[in-house]
Specification:
- By secondary structure, this protein is mainly alpha-helical.
- It has helices spanning 2-24, 39-49, 54-73, 88-100, 106-125, 151-159, 165-180, 184-187, 219-227, 238-252, 281-294, 299-306, 311-314, 322-330; strands spanning 195-196, 201-205, 212-216, 257-264, 267-274.
- 52% of the residues lie in helices and 8% in strands.
C-alpha cells in the first residue's frame, strides 16, 4: 500500500508540475478573443501587412468601397459593422445591392462576395468572432461565351498591312500573344533577355503567378522579333491597347455577329455584337490555348505553356463550338 501511495503522490506532483506552465500560457482561453473588431478595420490592417501584389489589394479595397456604399445606403454606420455582424442575411442583402443598385455582372458580383467571405474566414483564423452563416450564401458562376480567333483569322490579321505605325506595333504584340499563350502583362514586356535564339525559345517568369514558362517560337514570332532586332517597343496602357486591337480587327473585317448574353444586375441581356467589338488583349491567350487544343496537342503540354495548374481552369479558356467538336471527332478512327 505504501508503494501505491508513493506512486500516487509522484503522479500528482508530475501533473501539478505540468499544469503550472500550461496555466501561464493561458491555453484554456476560448478560440475567439474577448474584444470586438470592426470588420473594415480588420481588412485594412490585414492588407497593410500583406505581402500580396498591389493588384490583389486593390481588388479587396474595391469590395470594401462597395461595402461602405451599401452600409451608407441602408443607414448603417460602418463603425457598427463588426466581424460577427456579417451573416447570411447581410450577405444576401449585399448581393442584391450589387445587382439592383450597381447593376454589376453576375461574375463580378460573385467576385465581390467571395472576397468578402475570404476576409471573414481570415478574421476567424485570427481569432475574431464571426457569424458562420455567411457561408450559406453563394452566387453561381455564369459561363461567359468569350470569343477566340481561329488560325485563319490570326493569319488575316498578321498579313494585314493597311495600318498606322502605332497600329502595326500593337498588331505585332497581339500576334505575339496569339502565338505564345502569354498574358498581356507578360507579352507586353518581352525583351531581348527572354529570347533564346539558338533554341528558338522564349523563357519568361510570368508576372501573375511567378511561374517560369518556356514557349517555342512560332514562325510569326520569329519574324516579328527579327523585324525589331529583338527590341520590341513598349505598348501603352492596356486600355489603349484594347481599343487599338478592336480597331485593327474591325479594319481586317472580323464582323461576324456573335450572340452576347450576360446577367447584368437582375436581368439577362441578349444581343448580337460584331466579333471585333469582343476582341481584347486576353483574346490572344484564349486563341492560343484553343488552337493548340484543336490541333490535338495533349492538354498537359499546353498547360505547361499557359501555366494553368488544373484542367478545370484550363478548359475555361477553350472555346470550341459543337460543330467544331464534331468536325474534329469525324477524323477519329472510331468514326471511320
Amino acid at each position: 500500500m505504501a508503494a501505491v501511495s508513493s506512486a500516487l503522490i509522484l503522479i500528482n506532483w508530475i501533473m501539478e508540475a505540468i499544469r503550472l506552465p500550461l496555466q501561464s500560457m493561458n491555453l484554456s482561453r476560448p478560440r475567439y478573443y474577448d474584444y470586438e473588431k470592426h470588420f473594415i478595420d480588420f481588412v485594412e490592417e490585414y492588407l497593410t501587412k500583406s505581402h500580396r501584389p498591389e493588384r490583389y489589394k486593390m481588388m479587396y479595397m474595391n469590395t470594401i468601397d462597395h461595402l461602405t456604399d451599401f452600409c451608407r445606403l441602408n443607414g448603417v454606420n460602418t463603425n457598427d459593422v463588426y466581424t460577427y455582424s456579417i451573416g447570411m442575411e447581410f450577405c444576401e442583402n449585399f448581393v442584391y445591392y450589387l445587382r439592383s443598385e450597381k447593376r454589376l455582372m453576375q461574375n463580378t458580383v460573385k467576385g465581390h462576395l467571395e472576397r468578402l467571405q475570404a476576409m471573414l474566414q481570415k478574421a476567424m483564423l485570427y481569432g475574431y468572432c464571426v457569424d458562420n452563416t455567411y457561408k450559406e450564401v453563394s452566387v453561381p458562376e455564369e459561363e461567359v461565351g468569350a470569343v477566340f480567333l481561329s488560325m485563319t483569322e490570326i493569319i488575316r490579321i498578321y498579313y494585314f498591312d493597311r495600318l498606322t505605325r502605332f497600329q502595326t506595333e500593337v498588331k505585332d504584340h497581339f500576334i505575339m500573344g496569339c502565338m505564345t499563350g502569354l498574358r498581356y502583362s507578360d507579352y507586353s514586356r518581352l525583351n531581348e533577355s527572354h529570347f533564346d535564339r539558338d533554341a528558338n525559345m522564349i523563357r519568361i517568369k510570368t508576372q501573375k503567378t511567378g511561374v517560369v514558362v518556356s514557349v517555342p517560337m512560332h514562325r510569326f514570332v520569329r519574324e516579328i522579333v527579327r523585324k525589331y532586332d529583338y527590341h520590341l517597343s513598349k505598348p501603352r496602357c492596356i486600355q489603349y491597347f484594347n481599343r487599338a486591337v478592336k480597331e485593327i480587327c474591325h479594319k481586317v473585317g472580323l464582323t461576324e455577329p456573335i450572340l452576347w448574353e450576360r446577367t447584368v444586375g437582375t436581368e439577362v441581356i441578349r444581343k448580337e455584337i460584331p466579333k471585333w467589338e469582343l476582341i481584347s488583349s486576353h483574346t490572344a491567350r484564349r486563341s492560343f490555348a484553343t488552337n493548340m487544343f484543336l490541333q490535338n496537342i495533349p492538354t498537359y503540354r499546353i498547360m505547361l505553356i499557359t501555366g494553368h495548374k488544373s484542367e478545370s481552369s484550363f478548359f475555361k479558356y477553350i472555346r470550341v463550338t459543337r460543330e467544331e467538336n464534331a468536325a474534329t471527332l469525324a477524323g477519329h478512327l472510331f468514326f471511320q
